[in-house]
Structure formats: C-alpha cells, structure tokens
Amino acid sequence: MLKKLLFTFSVLSFLGNAANAQCTPDPAFADSSFGVWPDTVDNLPCAFSDNAAGYSTVINLKTLADTSLAVAGQVVSASVQKFRILSVTGLPNGFTYTPNAAEWVNGGSDPNFTPVQGCVTLDATQASIQSLIAANPNGIDYALTINVDAFIKSTNNALINFALGSGKWLSDPALSTFGVSAIPVTGYSIKVRGTTGACNPLSIGDATTNSFSVKGNFPNPFNRSTKITYNVARSQYVELAIYNMVGTLVMKQNIPSIIGENTYEVSAEQLKSGIYFYTINDGKKSITKRMNVSNN
C-alpha cells in the first residue's frame, strides 16, 4: 500500500534559486501527513507597497517516499528518491525565491525511502513592490506555475525499471515515450496591493455574496462517491479537472451551474485508490483542493 502522503501539494512548494538567507523547516509540521504549508487554498500572503520591510514568507514542505505514477496508460507504484524545481514562471519582477536545499533527498534507501522536510523563502524589497504598484495602482495578481521534477528510483513494473536504468528524473527524455514528464503545478498566486491589510479581490464581482468559492468534497476519504460543493457568482459552466498524484489529468468535465451553491458528485468507480487533486475553474480563476479515494 502506498503511503498516503500528498505528493501533489508537496511539489507545489519547490520554489528555487535566489541568493537570500535560507529558511529552517518548521518542526511543527514534522509529523503531519500533508505536503505543504500554506496550501493553495490558503495561498500566499499579500505583498503591500507601504510595508517598509518589503515582503518575506516561508513555505514549509514535506516530501513523500513513494507514489503512483501513470505510465503508458497504466498505474505503477514508484519509489521516489528526491525532488527538485525546474522552473517557476509568473513571479513578479523583483521577487526572489530560495530553497534550503538544491534538491530534497529522501532518507533511507530504495525501496524504503523516508520523507524529509524542507522549506523555501520568498522575498521582495519594498522598492520592488512599489514599482509594481506604480504601474498597477489598483493592485495586481500574479499566478505562479511551478515545474517540478521527481527522481524515480524504481517501480514495481519491470519494463519501466528497464527504462529507468539506475533511476531517472521525470523530465528525462528517455521517459517521454511513456508519457511521463515534469509536473507543471498551478494554484499559488501573489497579490500585490498598495495598502497594508487591504487585500481584497480585484474584481468587484468576486466580492459578492455568491462569489466563486469551493468548500470541498464530502465524504473525504471516500470509497463509493463524494460530492464537491462550490459557489458561483452567476449561472454558467465551470470546468472540473481531476489529476493524480503526479499531475496526470484523469478526468475533465464541464458542469452547468446556477448562481449560488452547487454540488457535483464524483464516483469512485472512475478513480483508482489514492490521493488526487481537483481544480474547479469559473473562467476567471481556479481553485484547487484534494480528495482521497479508498475504494480497495
């Protein structure tokens, strides 16, 4: 049985390669089964141009040691040795990011790797934030795309092990023929605003009583079906996309929705046991949450 650790949210926080002071992982998260704090629902704090200290926040993470991997139409169990970041797009000018390690290397050895903690600092000077506000007086939101790599040491599939050789990163061209690649992860954003505390949505419509939001799914975990509850500001279609733990799309559906609260039922028959994350997009923004299927 694979460890029920949240790979998709672990990888969301692998920001990397600036020259700021390194952070120290928070021991409060050492025993948690979650992967990253804050998650994409809480998201990152706002950056304010009137803050003389500029912007600085720490993202804590915990890796996982094994996962499910979608390869050539089948799911295999994979041992994960380490993680790294390939690139981050969408960061505002003047913002930098620094991991406490170039790679997060799990403890133990194959096939009994053990998770490790890590962290990332995200910084900007007040002058950098003021420059952004000068060009965008009403504020501006920056959506981040984080391309994450995992080093797969071995799997329970002989053909895939042959392709891996001594182990390969997901981004290795040798694995592309199997439909495997590094994982582009979205969901984090940085909101830049002029006045401390005033971190309201940019769109007036988003601030209405029936603003777009996702409450989550219940029950969770589930073994038969679960209902996702969400709000929309107007009658429209929303897009639901469900991804497995390494970012492979397993289901996409356009859902007709009425203004206010809606529910959509997902059947476990459509999904194998494991942890998934799902994104609901109303055409303006996306909200990502997680679900756990335990149908075996």
Number of helices: 4
SSE pattern, N- to C-terminal: HEEEEEEEEEEHEHEHEEEEEEEE
Q: Please give the alpha-carbon distance between the first and last residues.
A: 10 Å
Calculate Rg over CA atoms. 20 Å
Low-confidence stretches: 1-19, 204-209
Structural class: mainly beta
Describe the structure in your own words:
- The chain is built from four helices and 20 strands.
- It is mainly beta and 296 residues long.
- The protein folds into two domains: 7-193, no CATH class; 204-293, Macroglobulin (MG2) domain (Immunoglobulin-like), CATH 2.60.40.1930.
Topology:
Elements: H1 7-11, E1 36-37, E2 47-48, E3 55-62, E4 66-71, E5 74-89, E6 96-99, E7 104-105, E8 107-109, E9 112-114, E10 117-124, H2 126-135, E11 140-155, H3 158-164, E12 168-169, H4 173-176, E13 183-193, E14 213-218, E15 225-232, E16 236-243, E17 249-257, E18 260-267, E19 274-281, E20 286-293
Parallel strand pairs: 2-13
Antiparallel strand pairs: 1-3, 3-10, 4-5, 5-7, 5-11, 6-10, 8-9, 11-12, 11-13, 14-15, 15-18, 16-17, 16-19, 19-20
